[in-house]
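DNA/RNA helicase, superfamily ii, Halogeometricum pallidum JCM 14848. Tokens?
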Amino acid sequence: MSKQVGRVDTLFVHETNDDFLVVVQRDGERVFRAVLELKETSAGPRPAKFRVKRGSSDEPRDPSQFVELARRAERIRISQQTSKSRRDEFREMLEGYQLEALVVRTCRFCASNGRYSPITGETAIKADNEHICPDCAKRELERELDFSGTGTMTKAAQERLESLLLETQDLGRISNLLKGGLDPDLTKFDTVSATTDDVDLVPTSTLDLDPKLQSMVEDRFDTLLPVQSLAVENGLFEGRDQLVVSATATGKTLVGELAGVNRALEGKGKMLFLVPLVALANQKHEDFEERYGDDLNVTIRVGASRINDDGNRFDPNADIIVGTYEGIDHALRTGKDLGDIATVVIDEVHTLKEDERGHRLDGMISRLKHYCEEREQRRERYDGAQYVYLSATVGNPETLARKLRSTLIEFEERPVPIERHVTFADGREKPDIINKLVRREFDTKSSKGYRGQTIVFTNSRRRCHEISRKLEYDAAPYHAGLDYRRRKQVERQFGNQDLAAVVTTAALAAGVDFPASQVVFDTLAMGIEWLSVQEFEQMLGRAGRPDYHDKGTVYLLVEPDASYHNSMEMTEDEVAFKLLKGEMEDVITVYDESAAAEETLANIIVAGKKAKRLNDRMLGDVPTKHAVGKLLEWKFIDGFEPTPLGRAVCRHFLAPRDAFRILGGIRGGLSPYDIVAEMELADEEL
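Tokens:
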């Protein structure tokens, strides 16, 4: 055997039952394993039996071969897990042959499986009441993942857990994390630092505004905030169009507000302030009414007013019109006279990239510009409109500003740092974890004296109610399904710190003003689609306000291997690390046949034969010739005139597919309820 084995680096010995397991290594690789039994002789302990292990069987060898191997070995090591009495017995045997051995700390799991794996204070991983090597700890972690049903966790998530395992050297702490543990040292993924750009702040006393607005501004501020100062220095009050890109809570909304209110007070025309959601429009309408209602007429144009069209709330002659994109677009599509528009503020302009709404916003901007240009040609004292576009998250700001023909005002300051945390949890465990997070946050106060409050984002209205009911501290659901009175009540309660948390869908992500210190993602989906990096950044940006909090905290509650619809290609753990490490997507409006036809139809209704010019200046590439051909084929237009069917389709914002479903249902004698049910079912199947 000795000739076959050759040089021996290490001979490692580990106690097993009444025997010793012997591992022979060369160049760090195991050559073979064997079992050694000792016997007591008059000269002391000596080898009695030596059996080489071959698979499941043992091959007997002459005990003297062990002595020969031991003499060849450069070092002999005894596992620390071997009992002291057996260690002493083995050492006494070696001394009889003038050999020595050192006792070393080793991994028991490795030793039991015939591997020599010494561990040190730097490499040992605590597992229950012992320490094991990193490789065995990783294998134990994989077994726990399999046992918990999360064995298909993606590579990025496993790498995250293994990194934490090596960092903490404690398998138990990582196991606790898999069960929804909230040890902040483990859950913390990173910190997005607060940053400050060096900007010369504009004193409000130097602004040349209408006296009423000048007085209001000077009463509220001594200087403008940095992003506001940059906008003023780059021609805000000279009527220059601007794209303002800046993080949440940096004051960009006031940029558009100052420009629009000032021009309205000077008699140059009204301000349109446009937002994507009814909840945002309601809040802005209330804010503007309170702030400027004594001097200017304020009205609102949202979904209900465009559908009912009874004019009870909407006054087209008002000085300030707050509206949703669709609310104002409906007015354009139906030929409403909006009067002289001096300023158009479009908040959340990154909506241009959304599949469903992006093309409609793109078309609405083009139609609104056409409306103002036509009016400018007809009225001598009207100079057209200034456009101010606002967004917290844009991946391609220079390109977008160029396409919008506007000056880019980009300010990258983040007013407070944001800690981002990741923990893993089953969907059923998440409400309990959210409860702990909400309770912990509300029980703390910032240096400014404010309690910590939480926004919980989830993916359905039903889940909003489910989670809010399970929270110990006062909390409320908040979504578009609540009536206006209830939403205002929740906003007021949160602002007064009477609520520890609100649980919401997408409504808050777009900018409803809730001063929260913590954001918790119950899911990383909105409806049946995963969040984009842009949406994710927008939502986590709600955590931490400079006037209230010292920092923001964000928690992602990740269910490994989970998805919320069979159309979702990725799993939640895969999405989590994509979002945390991802780059902001570019704002690009993409047109398929349906979107191109819908916007071309609306442009024909608004501009007739000039529709091609409206199409050409939209951000996305609209195949006008093909779209016109389809509209003729579908009998939505006759020449460049809309048919009654085309007008109805346009007025109700119907995609061609939906229009044909409704027509088919009507011709088939279905009731309106049956038609709606069939459309819902078809959408689910898609």
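Residues 304-311 have pLDDT under 50 and may be disordered.
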